[in-house]
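Worked problem 6 (solution included).
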Amino acid sequence: MTETDERDARGVGIALGAGIGAALGVALDDLALWLSLGLAMGVAFGAALNTR
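Solution. The predicted structure is:
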């Protein structure tokens, strides 16, 4: 995997996690908590995409 592909996967993971966290935060009326958890999940998801 090239360096550009790794950055793309990391960015997709963070964006996906932030989107999921924002959606959960709005639905559960605690945006700050779920957005931060979503970003953490996004970083983990991006790292998982880099392992292939």
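Discussion: The mean pLDDT is 81.
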